[in-house]
Specification:
The complex is a heterodimer of chains A (about 70) and B (about 150). With about 70 residues, chain A is mostly helical. Chain A contains five helices and two strands. In chain A, helix 2 crosses helix 3. Chain B has about 150 residues and is mostly helical. The longest helix of chain B is centred in the middle third of the chain and has 31 residues. Chain B is globular, with a radius of gyration of 18 Å. The chains are: A mainly alpha (about 70), B mainly alpha (about 150). At the A-B interface, helix 3 of A face helix 1 and helix 4 of B.
């Protein structure tokens, strides 16, 4: 688990009422990728971060942030 | 294996899982065969090896079927498009390399300290042992990281 990086993916996803599978299909990754990113077990690349930001129409730093 | 670029994350995940299953069955097959031959074991494992052989053929068939649904780059070079699957695949390699390196270093030191201990170990039995350990240490981390998930 990455202790330095926090993300609001699960919150954003539940706000839009979409499943991990739907989000995974929308940005072209596996459901495993989404679930491990959500739980902090996997740190995604900039490409995935930007795809997520584009999907949620938010800046990347609104989805991912460094823990103080 | 398809010439086109049709790898989807689902196909890639299925391919990786079946690849790991083939490896674990082959690993067990090699290890049991080594134990049986080297230690002249009285345990009847020929039947077990026969079962493992049949199971591995089944897994290889399933593996080849899923290989037909992925790109050439994934099949030949293990370059998964999905980042997490790529990460898992590399983790498998990492564990396999580390484990076999450690095993060989320990074996080298042990065999130089106790030369008589391994003087009767034929090359083909040593190869079976190494291959078995390598396959298992590659596939176990992959299967562990691909285990069930909850949303």
């Amino acid at each position: 688990m990455n202790s330095e990086l926090d993300n609001h993916l699960a919150k954003l996803r539940s706000k839009q009422k979409i499943s991990q599978q739907q989000l995974a299909e929308a940005i072209g990754v596996s459901r495993k990728t989404i679930s491990t990113v959500e739980t902090g077990r996997f740190t995604p690349s900039v490409v995935i971060a930007l795809k997520l930001a584009r999907y949620f129409e938010l800046p990347v730093e609104k989805i991912f942030e460094l823990e103080d | 294996m398809n010439e086109g670029n049709i790898s989807t994350p689902i196909n890639e995940q299925l391919f990786l899982k079946r690849n790991a299953l083939v490896c674990i069955v082959l690993g067990i097959f090699f290890l049991t065969d080594f134990i049986y031959n080297y230690f002249n074991s009285s345990i009847e494992i020929e039947f077990l090896n026969f079962i493992l052989f049949i199971v591995s053929i089944g897994f290889i068939v399933m593996f080849l079927m899923s290989a037909n649904k992925i790109g050439k780059n994934v099949f030949l070079f293990g370059n998964f498009k999905d980042e997490y699957l790529n990460h898992i695949h590399n983790t498998g390699y990492k564990y396999s390399f580390s484990f076999i390196s450690l095993f060989l270093v320990v074996l080298t030191i042990t065999s130089s300290l106790f030369p008589k201990l391994f003087s009767t170990l034929p090359v083909h039995e040593f190869s079976k042992l190494s291959a078995g350990l390598m396959f298992i240490s590659y596939s176990l981390p992959i299967l562990f990281l691909l285990r069930g998930e909850d949303e």
